[in-house]
């Protein structure tokens, strides 16, 4: 690792590499305390003074995007056991003392140039801790406490064997619920971080007689979900007393993902959907149809809810799809349809549910955007040692599938899943990733398709194995009997992901993961008026 600067007295005036060109709006923020955002809303704050002995590192190129800066996550874990507060806190404190991992204790500051930077304290103490930590204790069962009872009860939900929607309030939509489930007063929007000395990571632990709730909060600019997986693995390794199992932190100074445009030789291939890039009046029309109505008309605002897909229902869908594919002949260009993953099936199934609820025009183009981790491709390009390297950053890209509403609704679920799989195979290559990266550096935002299309965004968090995170060494007492629950001792029985965003995230969501009995949990944001239609569709399809 390159030597770290011990003091930075004039960072704001240093030469900024091209990859870190300033975002003009942050330049305005640092110079004007009373400013407005894109839609004319007031934004007023004063950024704290720079601490001269802080280590300051520019945001990496792909971390410093409007979409990442404008979104924060709150991941809620439910453990049906009593976890020791101090063991958890001490283990995380120790992790942030290790080389590289200290970056998780950074503050966020703007510079005069407009660039954003991580300001890492020289040392962490009670005045400037490495993370925000809070806890609360209630001498009552978790399901008897008013706020906690609003969360999804994770046990026995699959008894009916059909999908269902759970009306769990999000932290953004309900301020009283947010103040209960997350660290009180912890930053939630980028402006909150910029106007305070808040660390980027917050942990809130709530103890009940029979359970522990733990919420991990962070700004999306810090990392994606695979990066969070690395943090959780390192934290639990120290908790087990196995500090030597903590892998080296990559990307402390070096922008690994930003190196996509520096590999030699650069690929000579074109991005698969390059000719479908929206520019000029087409991009303006897309924004007019999607951005303005979504942001301005409150009657159309979205709602983020939880969807449970029971194991037996998912198993039946997968078996039916594989049986259908086994009877199909190869396509004219020789492509076989012999395999689709569970993720393909889930995305195809959910797309059909949403389109039926939306009642869109049959001829309307639909773009299915599958958010994919690019760590394996970074390893292929020798930018990281392996796909399993500890890379705490944003390393994802979108895989696109284009179709028509009529086609998705009329063809079989297996056929749509095959289209998703074939699109993934064609685009998930190092050459396609680099070609897409080159376009995105010159077009912000880079949107592909047609101006009137319906866009559905889908993220797969299942590979983060959030339901398998093991906090057994922190367990001081079993809460719920093992014969009454779906989880092992020290492992979460339920994981929910809430988002807080400065922009509309309609028609976007994630497969959070599968619990111990293989029930699949999704969190999705749709128009409020669409959710009742979705629930009716779920009842109809599973009747």
Provide an overview of this structure:
The protein has helices at about 25-30, 65-70, 85-95, 175-180, 190-195, 225-240, 280-295, 310-325, 340-360, 375-380, 405-410, 415-425, 430-440, 530-540; strands at about 35, 40-45, 55-60, 70-80, 80-85, 105-110, 115-120, 130-135, 165, 200-205, 210-220, 300-310, 365-375, 395-405, 455-460, 475-480, 490-500, 510-515, 520-525. With about 550 residues, the chain is α+β, with helices and mostly antiparallel strands. It has one domain (about 65-95, about 130-260, about 280-465, about 490-543): Chloramphenicol Acetyltransferase (2-Layer Sandwich), CATH 3.30.559. The strands form five sheets. It has a seven-stranded mixed β-sheet. Strands 8-10-11-4-17 form a five-stranded mixed β-sheet. Strands 3-7-6 form a three-stranded antiparallel β-sheet. The longest helix is centred in the middle third of the chain and has 17 residues, at about 280-295. The radius of gyration is 23 Å and the shape is globular. The model is unreliable at about 1-40 (pLDDT under 50). Belongs to the plant acyltransferase family. One of its GO terms (molecular function) is acyltransferase activity. InterPro entries: CAT-like_dom_sf (IPR023213), Sec_Metabolite_Acyltrans (IPR051283).
């Amino acid at each position: 690792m390159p030597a770290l600067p011990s003091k930075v007295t004039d960072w704001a005036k240093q030469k900024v590499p091209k990859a870190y060109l300033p975002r003009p709006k942050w330049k305005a923020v640092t110079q004007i305390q009373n400013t407005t955002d894109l839609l004319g809303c007031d934004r007023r704050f004063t950024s704290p003074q720079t601490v001269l002995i802080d280590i300051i590192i520019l945001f990496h190129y792909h971390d410093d995007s409007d979409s990442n800066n404008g979104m924060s996550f709150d991941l809620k874990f439910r453990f049906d056991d009593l976890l020791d507060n101090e063991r958890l806190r001490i283990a995380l404190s120790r992790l942030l003392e290790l080389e590289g991992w200290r970056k998780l204790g950074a503050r966020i500051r703007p510079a005069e140039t407009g660039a954003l930077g991580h300001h890492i304290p020289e040392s962490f103490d009670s005045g400037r801790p490495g993370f925000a930590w809070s806890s609360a204790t209630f001498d009552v069962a978790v399901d008897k406490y008013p706020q906690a009872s609003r969360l999804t009860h994770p046990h026995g939900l699959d008894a009916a064997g059909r999908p269902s929607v759970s009306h769990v309030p999000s932290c953004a939509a309900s301020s009283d619920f947010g103040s209960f489930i997350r660290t009180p007063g912890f930053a939630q929007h980028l402006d909150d971080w910029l106007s305070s000395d808040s660390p980027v990571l917050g942990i809130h632990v709530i103890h009940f007689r029979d359970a522990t709730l733990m919420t991990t909060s962070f700004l999306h600019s810090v990392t994606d979900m695979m990066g969070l997986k690395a943090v959780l693995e390192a934290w639990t390794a120290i908790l087990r007393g196995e500090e030597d199992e903590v892998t080296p932190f990559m990307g402390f100074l070096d922008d690994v993902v930003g190196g996509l445009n520096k590999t030699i030789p650069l690929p000579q291939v074109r991005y698969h959907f390059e000719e479908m890039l929206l520019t000029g009046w087409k991009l303006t029309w897309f924004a007019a149809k999607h951005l303005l109505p979504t942001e301005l008309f409150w009657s159309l605002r979205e709602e983020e809810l939880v969807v449970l897909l029971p194991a037996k229902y998912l198993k039946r869908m997968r078996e039916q799809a594989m049986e259908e594919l086994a009877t199909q002949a190869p396509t004219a260009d020789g492509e076989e349809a012999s395999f689709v993953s569970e993720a393909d099936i889930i995305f195809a199934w959910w797309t059909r549910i949403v389109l039926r609820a939306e009642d869109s025009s049959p001829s309307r183009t639909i773009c299915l955007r599958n958010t994919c981790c690019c760590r394996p491709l970074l390893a292929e390009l020798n930018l990281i040692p392996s796909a399993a390297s500890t890379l705490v950053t944003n390393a994802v890209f979108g895989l696109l599938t284009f179709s028509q509403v009529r086609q998705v609704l009329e063809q079989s679920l297996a056929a749509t899943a095959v289209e998703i799989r074939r699109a993934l195979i064609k685009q998930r290559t190092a050459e396609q990733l680099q070609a897409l990266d080159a376009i995105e550096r010159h077009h912000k935002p880079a949107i592909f398709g047609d101006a009137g299309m319906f866009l559905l965004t889908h993220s797969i968090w299942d590979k983060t194995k959030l339901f398998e995170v093991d906090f057994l060494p922190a367990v001081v007492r079993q809460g719920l009997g093992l014969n009454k629950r779906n989880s092992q001792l020290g492992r979460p029985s339920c994981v929910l992901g809430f988002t807080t965003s400065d922009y509309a995230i309609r028609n976007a969501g994630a497969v959070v993961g599968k619990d111990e009995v293989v029930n699949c949990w999704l969190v999705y944001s749709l128009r409020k008026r669409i959710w009742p239609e979705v629930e009716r569709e779920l009842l109809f399809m599973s009747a």
